[in-house]
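User: I'm new to structure prediction. If I give you an amino acid sequence, what do you actually give back? Let's try with this one:
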Amino acid sequence: MGPLLRADAERCAELEELLFPGDDPWSAQAFRDEIGAGHVYVGVRSEGTLVGYAGLAFTAGPPQPEAEVHTIGVDPAHQGRGLGRVLLHRLLTPADEVGATIFLEVRTDNEPARRLYESEGFTVVGVRKRYYRPSGADAYTMRRDARA
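Assistant: Good question. You get back a string of structure tokens that encode the predicted 3D arrangement of the chain. For your 148 residues, that looks like this:
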């Protein structure tokens, strides 16, 4: 586990294609842009190959800091081993250190991800109709209150 590097962008885009085939997966350039913007992006490797990634951005500062989980993805061949939870924890830690409220979107039909987020204190606060493109799938907006 460590920081996601600009050199990881191509592999992240490959994983996006696997994970989100019916929607608009992020491009390698989108990953390079996000990593270059100084957001919190982390990756996990197995035998030197990137198998998971996650990213978070701070969207508001004190006195009421907020953050948003941009993405979490784990190679299908490595799912079910707790890597998603490990990646999520790596995002929650810096947000908790500054007492940030955290938001994210998750497909309404992605039960495993929703259950993971709920187990970490996120609650559904709304629905975004036709949020994902081009599939038109709906997303839940979820929120986790600030923790000191």
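You can read the tokens as a compact description of the fold. Here is one thing that stands out. The helical segments are 9-19, 28-36, 83-97, 111-119.
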